[in-house]
TrEMBL record:
Cofactors: FAD
Keyword Chloroplast: no
UniProt keyword annotations, A-Z: 4Fe-4S, FAD, Flavoprotein, Iron, Iron-sulfur, Metal-binding, Oxidoreductase
PROSITE patterns linked to this entry: FAD_PCMH
Catalytic activity: (R)-2-hydroxyglutarate + A = 2-oxoglutarate + AH2
Top EC group: oxidoreductase
Residue span(s) of domain FAD-binding PCMH-type: 33-247
The species this protein was found in: Streptomyces chartreusis
GO biological process, one term: lactate catabolic process
Record-given protein name: D-2-hydroxyglutarate dehydrogenase
Family under the similarity heading: In the N-terminal section; belongs to the FAD-binding oxidoreductase/transferase type 4 family.
Length: 957
């Protein structure tokens, strides 16, 4: 232990982390930059903050304050001590609806403040797109804004008082009339009044530099306001008094379509006299599903408010009438508005990929110009992009003249980095020529501070340096930001990554087969750190259960980045730090759909486990549950299911089995079916397969086959009632595939799962435990078995969502060298998809009952729930399924050490929904894991949709 670490541990009550994981998690924010800290401290209170500064001052070690880590200019990273305010100093101290103020700690997430204020009809004005995870301290440090700034201004407009600790350890309470100003600051200002009155551009989004003009006497000598946007370089905020505003009782959202972004930009300023709450712009390149928007190549999202829905709508419609648009729509439904706003909020992630899939990066993320000049600026910006051979799609706060854009810089090679610098220098001159600010929201940080002389001139920058010297004479607070800046092309986070692709098992087709490129997908926007699940979202259940960055998608991606870099995490695939972070990953795949850049941590986890345990002893759970299909098939062949069930009911035997199998002692061992689905299938009276409707192949997944054959039986009944012909996949390998479709169906159906020696399998349990060599062997055998089918039109209907997802996504990505894999993946359908596509005229039975439950994670992430929703509606099953994750997640919830997290995930949404269900409600759970979790934690029987529909058909014959 170093002397610094020892003194910090002695001085503070909060946690002190000098371990590899703590440091790796804070090497980056959401910018292009990477700096490795010495350690991380999570202070309990202001006393801890002061103590850290005192110790670090004695050792001349710099200190960086960090909130949600969503800064886009590099100002939340550092080489000394990082203060993490999200763990303890994250409270809402008080809220006074009469004075419309709140007292907050720096680690408070904005959404938590908004929820508390909403109870009083109030809100905090600024709302960046990261509102679900950004913190008030970070917003103050960056002077953040958000989409509603045209109505309620920047964070500085909403700050009344600040409690801070200066670089020399002074406790100051900042306010107007020089309140709390450190000694010497007034002298600096009084000597430069003329320069301060003329040296700042007039525009709504001037964030760059220090706001020294707020200290002018005519501006109230507002020290608190001047402190906003100082990026942690002047002092550390420990508490803030902020202003709240009255929230409109009703809102409407007008989406205005224009021919292109230039037309939208030209129109934005003309809408401001109508008093909109937002004027946000984005182009078609950033909209994955443009069909949900009105006609146009670019859009303005214009929100209006009112005392009633009619008033809000009337204001929106007035704006539509005044605007010269090619298409428009007005939405008053809150759910519809939220869905549209999610498109805009996810732009910071979706913009990291160009339409052709190539990478794009921040760097000129948020420059701003006077709104009236936005159209002209965008034309010049586009011309400069073209001159440099670059591409980027602007979006952002058009009503304030603030543009966000990610550009396809080549930051992986020296020539590319040099081109990045040249472009940055030239664009800074373009921004200044239009009377703009280098930063209009996210601050200067390392990305833009070097260019401040172009905007302010050298004399003003020297004045900034003098102000910094008053607050922090030892230059310990976030050095290299704003003044005496680090070069904008130094400390790039990509420079440490391997230049050649590493040897991996999965194909990573969207990343050119490069695992490093897959890991680079995480740009740090941290949507995975959302602290409460809302709507259908799943990501990231382990973070919400633990509150730890290590157990978020971003945290795991950061550790994988450092593993590839090899400087901090030095033992590569053998890393225990990466293994421990991935241990609580449920492999729910929620990030694959909910993350704006589609990080797929479940695949990364499987990849890591494959390498980590190569040639080494695996955990017992990998053998007991990872090889579950083998064990269950053995039981079926020996017909010992009753014996296994009987032994599992005897406590000593159950205890021994769980101990040997690495199973959590709190879990009950599930009962095996007395008769497998295939045996039922063999003995049932089947309809002839040569006549009737379309042929479908019903996939006998491990869970349906051995644990829930009733689901398979119900599915057969419904599919046949819909006029479809049902068959099972072959169980012997056909050396010569049949040529004609009917030959295949006739040859296929008489082959039962009892007579054949082999089984189809999706490989899910092997993949989730990282046994990828075994998974590939199983999947190749499956493709051999399915070869006769692949030349036909017969779809493969998979009842278990996780198995369907494995076949649709994991199969072609793991066997990327076998074209049969894609052919099989493309014919995989869910139960609802099969009915919708192959029996479109069939009317399901009207069940007419309310439903509760949870959409399966893999269904949400890979398969989609829309066909299921339509089928439920047609059957009279009313109600929406919740999001989140049930927490069992296959083997995860059964593994020793995971029980508490598993339960916490279930308690977030699905268990409360089930407990609150009305009488007669159907509990839907298509996944076997989900049904098991409900049974073991709530004593409730969840049912597959096929079971509910089969019941609606009447008693079985």
């Amino acid at each position: 232990m170093s002397e610094l670490e020892a003194e910090l541990r002695k001085a503070v009550r909060g946690e002190v982390g000098f371990d590899v994981t703590s440091r790796a998690l804070t090497t980056m924010d959401a910018s292009n930059y990477r700096r490795v800290p010495l350690g991380v401290v999570a202070p309990h209170d202001a006393d801890d903050v002061a103590a850290v500064l005192e110790v670090c001052r004695d050792h001349m070690v710099p200190v960086v304050a960090r909130g949600g880590g969503t800064s886009i200019a590099g100002q939340a990273t550092g080489t000394g001590i990082v203060l993490d305010f999200t763990r303890h100093m994250n409270g809402l101290v008080s809220l006074d609806p009469d004075t419309r103020t709140a007292v907050v700690q720096p680690g408070l997430v904005l959404d938590r403040l908004q929820e508390a204020a909403a109870a009083h009809g109030l809100r905090f004005g600024p709302d960046p797109s990261t509102h679900s995870r950004c913190t008030l301290g970070g917003m103050i440090g960056n002077n953040s804004c958000g989409s509603h700034s045209v109505a309620w201004g920047t964070t500085a407009d909403s700050v009344r008082e600040l409690e801070v600790v200066s670089g020399r350890g002074q406790r100051l309470r900042l306010g107007q009339d020089w309140a709390g100003a450190p000694q010497g600051l007034r002298d600096v200002v009084d000597g430069e009044l003329a320069r301060l009155r003329t040296g700042f551009p007039e525009l709504p989004r001037r964030i760059s530099g220090y706001a020294l003009d707020a200290l002018l006497p005519e501006n109230g000598a507002d020290v608190a306001r001047s402190f906003c946007g100082s990026e942690g370089t002047l002092g550390i905020v420990t508490e803030a008094v902020v202003r709240l505003v009255e929230a409109p009782r009703a809102r409407a959202l007008a989406v205005l379509g224009y021919g292109d972004e230039g037309a939208a930009a030209e129109a934005a300023a003309g809408l401001l006299p109508y008093g909109p709450l937002t004027v946000e712009g984005m182009a078609a390149d950033l909209v994955p599903s443009a069909h949900v928007l009105p006609r146009g190549g670019a859009w303005l999202f214009v929100e209006t408010g009112g005392e009633s829905q009619d008033e809000a709508r009337a204001r929106a419609e007035a704006i539509v009438r005044a605007a010269d648009v090619v298409g428009s729509t007005v939405v008053t439904d809150p759910g519809g508005q939220r869905a549209l706003w999610r498109i805009r909020e996810d732009a910071s992630g979706t913009a990291t990929r160009m339409p052709d899939g190539s990478e794009a990066w921040p760097g000129w993320e948020d420059c701003a110009v006077p709104p009236q000049r936005l159209g002209a600026y965008l034309r010049d910006f586009r011309a400069l992009l073209t001159a440099h051979g670059l591409r980027g799609t602007p979006y952002g706060h058009f009503g304030d003249g603030c543009i966000h854009v990610r550009i396809d810089f080549d930051l992986l090679t020296e020539p590319g980095v040099a081109a990045f610098r040249r472009f940055s220098e030239e664009l800074a001159e373009v921004v200044v020529a239009h009377g703009g600010s280098l930063s209009g929201e996210h601050g200067d940080g390392q990305a833009r501070a070097e260019l401040l002389p172009k905007m302010y001139g050298h004399d003003m920058v020297r004045l900034f340096e003098r102000a910094k010297g008053v607050w922090d004479p030892d230059d310990l607070l976030n050095p290299g930001m704003l003044v005496r800046p680090a070069p904008l092309d130094a400390d790039l986070r990509f420079s440490v990554l391997p230049r050649e692709p590493v040897d991996v098992a999965f194909g990573y087709p969207a990343d050119g087969g490069d695992f490093s490129a897959a890991v680079r997908r995480c740009v740090g926007v941290a949507k995975c750190r959302t602290t409460s699940a809302a709507g259908p979202a799943v990501m990231c259940p382990s973070f919400r259960a633990t509150g730890e960055e290590e157990h978020s998608t971003r945290g795991r991606a950061r550790l994988l980045h450092e593993m590839l870099a090899g400087e901090l995490v030095t033992d590569g695939w053998r890393s225990t730090e990466v293994r421990d972070a991935l241990d609580l990953c449920l492999a729910c795949k929620g990030c694959r759909s909910d993350c704006p850049v589609e990080v797929d941590m479940a695949t990364y986890k499987a990849e890591f486990l494959h390498h980590h345990y190569e040639g080494r002893r695996r955990p017992a759970a990998h053998h007991s549950m990872g090889r579950l299909p083998q064990w269950l098939r053995l039981v079926a062949r020996t017909r010992t299911a009753p014996l296994v069930n009987a032994l599992a009911a005897v406590p000593p035997f159950a205890w021994a089995a769980k101990r040997l199998g690495g199973i959590a002692p709190e879990r009950d061992i599930p009962r095996l079916a007395a008769r497998t689905f295939s045996r039922w299938w063999e003995r049932r009276e089947k309809a002839p397969v040569g006549t009737g409707g379309d042929l479908v192949l019903l996939w006998p997944d491990t869970f349906t086959e051995h644990l829930s054959p009733n689901v398979g039986q119900a599915a057969v009944r419904v599919l046949e009632a819909a006029g479809l012909r049902v068959a099972l996949p072959p169980t012997v390998r056909w050396r010569t595939p049949s040529g004609g479709g009917e030959e295949v169906t006739v040859a296929m159906d008489p082959v039962s799962l009892l007579r054949g020696r082999e089984r189809v399998c999706c490989g899910l349990t092997y993949i989730s435990t990282g046994q990828l060599d075994r998974a590939r062997a199983v999947l190749r055998r499956t493709l051999d078995l399915m070869e006769p089918v692949l030349g036909t039109a017969a779809p493969v209907v998979v009842l278990e969502p996780s198995c369907a997802a494995a076949l649709r996504s994991d199969l072609p990505e793991l066997l990327h060298d076998d074209p049969r894999a894609r052919r099989l993946a493309d014919r995989v359908l869910t139960f609802a998809e099969a009915l919708e596509r192959h029996a479109p005229d069939w009317t399901p039975p009207r069940v007419e009952r309310p439903v509760v439950g949870q959409t399966h994670c893999h269904q949400h992430a890979v398969l989609g729930d829309a066909p299921d929703g339509r089928l439920r509606e047609a059957a009279g099953l009313a109600g929406e399924l919740s999001g989140g994750c049930c927490g069992l997640a296959g083997n995860f919830g059964f593994e020793k050490g995971h029980y508490e997290v598993s339960v916490a995930c279930a308690e977030e949404q699905v268990l409360p929904a089930v407990r609150g269900a009305g009488e007669g409600a159907v509990v839907l759970a298509d996944g076997y894991s989900c049904r098991t979790q409900l049974e073991q934690l709530a004593g409730v029987r969840g049912r597959h949709l096929a079971e509910v529909l089969a019941e609606g058909l009447g008693a079985s014959g």
